[in-house]
Amino acid sequence: MKKTRIIIAVLSIIGLTAFGQDKTITGKIQSVDPYNDEFRLTINDTAFVLIVQPNDASKEKFEVNKEYKDILVEKKGKYELNSKYAEKTLVFSYYVNGKGWKCIKTIEPSKK
Amino acid sequence: MKKQLLVITAIASFSLCSTAQTILGVDVSSYQGTPTWSSVRNTSTKLFAWAKATEGTTIADADFTYNETNGTSAKVVMGAYHFAHPETNTATAEANYFVSIAGSYIKAGNLPPALDLEDPPSGTALTSYFTSSALVAWVQAWMTAVQNATGVKPILYTTGSIANYLGTSLTSYPLWTADPDGSPTATPSGTYLGSWPTWTFKQYSWNVTVSGITSGGVDGDSYNGDTAQFNSFIGPTVPPVCKTFYTTLPYSTSFETQWIYDSCGQADQRLPDKFWKSSIGGTTPDGDDYWHRDDYTGGDWSSPTSGAYTPAASNGTYSARFHNDPPPAGSTGALDLYINLSTAGTKTISFDYIHNEASPSPFKFDVVLSTDGGKTFTDTLMRISAQVSAWTNESVTTTATSSTGVIRFIVTDKGTSDVGIDNLSVSSTPTGIDEITTNTDMVVYPNPTDGTVLNGLFMADPAFNTMEVHIYDMMGRDVLTQQVEIERGRFSIALANAHLVEGTYMFVGLSGSERYIKTIVVK
Fold first, then answer.
1. Residue range(s) defining the domain that contains residue B118
2. Are B170 and B49 members of one domain?
3. Count of alpha carbons within 13 Å of B482, Cβ hemisphere only?
4. B243 domain residue, yes or no
5. Which residues of B touch A99 (CB under 8 A)?
């Protein structure tokens, strides 16, 4: 009985830790591509998705903390990385959505 | 009754919902693990769900069967979707793969099959891979193939930019638009609809929280209509009257492709293609009486390996098999080909046959013909009631003319060995070849041939030593004529100069009043 309780307790802790927690990755944005009406950012050779703010036809606002709403800028009809973030190491928090995409939630400067 | 129950359930659920009458759902894949569907249904007021079945031509979602089975048990209206990779595969290959996995879940009372068309996870956008017309052609081919195989019109899931890129050609297919604005009811803007006049389903979120799904966020969907419209959309829960498709001459099959699901038939019934129907009858019919492709292992057949014949096919890998292990005495299994025989003249039905049972009685295998769409079968073209221990070519002819012809292959009664047919062709016999006086005492080989040579062997020395040979393609064109010498009952024909492409041909040998007709395959 005791053993069962311990296992349940451990599983509960693991579950609480794993579920609902955002993950983070630190790195530089290597490339930006359009992707299913959103944008795919490649960071450390891994694809992340920057979601366009719903109902924003201009696509200038993204679902990310306001300090980094200008992470992408439009030039000649194409969106590209704002030059002020080029080669900058940033910390990205992300969650995995229903489509299995790694969606960027917040961007912060690296403290390194 | 089931339909009424569904309506009542739906209304009851939505009374708990802030958006009354809005029919909500989710779409899931292995990303969501194994949801507790009773919780999804009961605590989240979700009514419908699409489950990912396949991706490309090699990926079958690990949780698809779990989701379909448990979702249905929880009274969630389920559907199956396919994630397309048009940048990698042909539409036909992807459609066939999807149907092979999801086919049995596509039927009235479920959601229609859906094609998920979006940018591939890696690489460039689809609109960079394809011109608009090329992408339309790919999607159209997939839709057509799946509809032909299942009898159900698919719907298209896609993003706004792709919807716009597709133009107007596909707007007859209902649209499931990806518009994750967070609102199940807000009408998507034209940006998301392209040329579609309206939307049928909307993926309003990619990250909703649903009880019973513990993996995290899930896609949320909504239906554009009320409960009555939704029930009408998914169709009745009782089988509708099946549509009949008549093939045209010439027709041939070796039963090689995966048999399709008969969405109008009983649950496990399969058919070679949409031109066929299957039925059982007689005194005590049971599931063992259904014809299937020989490798079938589904719910119709008990002990499917029992009674199997060898080799499994006379041409290719598979054959059509009547599995009698044993059916109750007096029962029948019929496999019907619906075919337009309105062309004047003689039509030849050629096929290979096997039933290796020493004492088959009581047994009969009949090929019978209907000229009134299957209402009556008055013309018995052939009857076999004896053992045929090896694959043997059989040919019968008819001069009947009917645009609603049905050729029925029907087995009656019992035995311990199964019955097989293969290498079937139905064609208009060329003018002048209207009699077959003998056919089984000569064989041609190799068959299939590689197109370089074809040999013949008489079981007994014929009374003649030359024979005029014609090879006809399935359009009835004489593609090779040759006078052959017969020595000690053997002859050989060089085919190389005829440059025969892969396909099925008719061999006709003429000598005096003798006629020899064989179906040959060039591979």
1. 2-234
2. yes
3. 19
4. no
5. 31, 206, 219
Query: With contact defined as beta carbons under 8 Å apart, do B485 and B442 qualify?
Result: no
Where is pLDDT greater, at A110 or B302? A110
CB contact, 8 Å: A51 with chain B? yes
B450 falls within a domain: yes
Claim to verify: residue B162 and residue B64 sit in the same structural domain: yes
Q: Which residue of the set B63, B87, B116, B288 is catalytic?
A: B116
Average pLDDT, chain B: 84
Asked whether residue B245 is domain-assigned, the answer is no
Number of domains in chain B: 3
Which residues in chain B are closer than 8 Å to A18, comparing Cβ atoms? none
CA distances from B356 to B216, B316, B390, B392, B420 (A): 58, 20, 7, 11, 10
B67 interfacial to chain A (CB closer than 8 Å): no
Which residues in B lie closer than 8 A to residue A55 (C-beta atoms)?
A: 181
* C-alpha of B41 from chain center: 33
pLDDT at B268 over 70: no
Same domain, B146 and B52: yes
The residue written with tokens 């019968």 in the block is: B396
Catalytic residue among B118, B226, B268, B273: B118
Q: Are residues B275 and B363 in the same domain?
A: yes
The CATH number assigned to the domain holding B463 equals: 2.60.40.3080
Is B357 designated active site?
no
Co-location of B410 and B451 in the same domain: no
Q: Where are the alpha helices (DSSP H) in B177-245?
A: 190-193, 227-234
Query: Which candidate, B51, B57, B37, B207, places its Cα nearest to that of B114?
Result: B51
Residue B246 lies in a domain: no
Q: List C-alpha distances in Å: B411 to B335, B345, B363, B367.
A: 9, 28, 7, 9
B94-146 pLDDT, tens per residue? 999 999 999 888 887 899 999 999 999 887 899 999 999 999 999 999 999 99
Closest approach of B180 to chain A, Cα-based (Å): 7
Residue type, B458: F
CB B386 within 8 A of CB B417: no
Q: Are B251 and B339 in contact (CB under 8 A)?
A: yes
Residues B224 and B296 in one domain: no
What element of type H or E holds B127? helix B126-129
Q: How far is B190 from chain A (nearest CA, A)?
A: 11
Contact B291, B330 (CB under 8 A): no
Q: Which of B369, B401, B428 lies at the terminal end of a domain, its last residue?
A: B428
Is B122 close to A97, i.e. CB distance below 8 A? no
Same-domain pairing of B376 and B509: no
State whether B84 and B213 are in the same domain.
yes
For the entire predicted model, the pTM comes to 0.57
CB B237 within 8 A of CB B2: yes
